[in-house]
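In the laboratory, one determines a bound structure by crystallizing the protein with its ligand and collecting diffraction data. In a computational setting the workflow is compressed into a single prediction: the sequence and the ligand go in, and a structural description comes out. We illustrate the idea with zinc ion.
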Amino acid sequence: MSNFFKKATDSLNKGVATVGANSKALLEKSKINSAISNLENERVQLVQLLGQNIYNMYKAENQLEVKENIVNLIGEVDKRLELIAQQQELLKLVEQELNLVTGNSNPIMGHSLTCPCGHENPGDAKFCAGCGSQTTSTTT
Ligand SMILES: [Zn+2]
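The predicted complex, in structure-token form:
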């Protein structure tokens, strides 16, 4: 009886842990998504500011000369692009984690090709890494 009880609580705890990790990853995902959209907004504003600065400069001086504030603004825009790329990498990691938790496998890495020689190759492998023979894609 105590054994049954232990089994029941074990599976219950496992379920709770899965749901917990799942919602944590989902929360993380929405955080990253909002960080990306904030950065994207900043980037758009910076580009507008950059355009406004160049416009004003041209109007005032009737020529274009790359000044420090312009260089700084371009640097700020690039920084946002970099940060967006970082967040997108992070998002990929969280999605991988989420797939692990929910049991969904990556569609690209999901299926594998087992060669007649017994070596297991990635689903997109053209040749067997074990024996070098051409793989026949039977899984679609
Ligand atoms: Zn093989």
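The chain has two domains: 2-104, 106-140. Keep in mind that any predicted model is a hypothesis to be tested, not a measurement.
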